[in-house]
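Try it yourself: sequence plus thymidine-5'-diphosphate, in.
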Amino acid sequence: MNIFVTGAAGFIGSAFVRHALAADAGCSVVSFDLLTYAGNIENLAGLDPRRHFFIKGDICDRTAVNEALPDDCDAVFNFAAESHVDRSILSADDFVRTNVLGTQVLLDAAREKKVRRFVQISTDEVMGSLPENSGESFTEASSLRPNSPYAASKAAAELFVRAARQTHGIDTVVTRCGNNYGPRQFPEKLVPLMIANALNDQPLPVYGDGLNVRDWIYVDDHCSGVWAAFEKGRNGAVYNFGSRCEMTNLEVVRSILDLLGKPYSLIKFVDDRPGHDRRYAIDPSLVERELGWKASVSWDDGLKKTVQWYDENKPWIDGVRTGEYRSFYKAVYGMDLAK
Ligand code: NAD
Ligand code: TYD
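Structure, out:
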């Protein structure tokens, strides 16, 4: 089997490539990634060169995509994206380009090369925000109600995937997952940012009152869900993945400080994010029933593995908290990153 994975040098894409190579001994992977600030070739280190091949390229570049996509391809997995809400608030242009145009370019190439299945990696954020304490969860029937430019671009991408299936008969599956955490996540997102700052005894910036709720899932559980959707999903289906792990941001930050033995006094409440979604929660019962998938990593175990990875890989963190990242940090938080 041959698969094409975009965004493969990012956090989830790289975990997915490792998952696919382990899940099917006959699987060969072409990884395609532009290596933006969020892509890191080190995330793909140590893979068997007989089964894994990396190509640097832009999903918006038709020629590059057509050249890289194998002729006999079983599936495209589109993980490539601009993925951080705060960056989409600063400027949405790259989000529209990569997340929308890039997806359409991939759909066109998949059609031309008769790829057997197109798997679009989407997010629960396309469904907007849920009322606090309502007990309500997102299901596959929830409407698209994106609130951030990031979420709007991911929702638009889903609609292009739908249109490609309706119009051109491409076999498609869309996966929507909640907030991931785990090793190799770029330290602009909540969990790795708080770990990196706590390790350096720097303030942990919590937006607003810290009571926004996210539904957390360990990255390897997400990857096994995407694989299950590829193998067993219905053509045209959308699947929601979550691990029934709702927590407020303050609970998340405190558990990181507890694990590292650092004081809560490091928490610094900062101005709220504009348009900040209050609550995400996913009902995963469809995928549990239809795909036989279930999350297997608890928050306590997953967080322990994650904190341990960052603790043991300080050069990785120092390597990415440089140059452009420091200007981004200043722009979002109005303060310098000390280290
Ligand atoms: P990430 O930012 O860590 O990685 C994105 C990767 O895409 C990077 O390697 C980057 O170099 C690459 N990329 C960006 N623009 C590109 C382009 N034009 N051409 C080729 N490659 C390009 O993101 P992530 O957290 O690993 O997320 C991966 C996917 O999963 C995204 O589509 C995201 O929307 C989705 N998702 C993420 C989460 C989460 O919690 N992180 C949750 C649900 C869904
Ligand atoms: P994030 O990791 O950016 O994911 P998303 O916005 O896609 O859910 O943020 C997770 C939650 O943490 C979200 O409610 C915003 C909050 N947050 C902070 O309070 N401080 C921060 O510095 C960051 C990056 C996020």
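One thing you can check immediately is this: Residues 6-7, 9-13, 33-36, 38-39, 58-60, 79-83, 98, 102, 121, 123, 154, 177, 179-180, 186 surround nicotinamide-adenine-dinucleotide (ligand 1) (CB under 6 Å).
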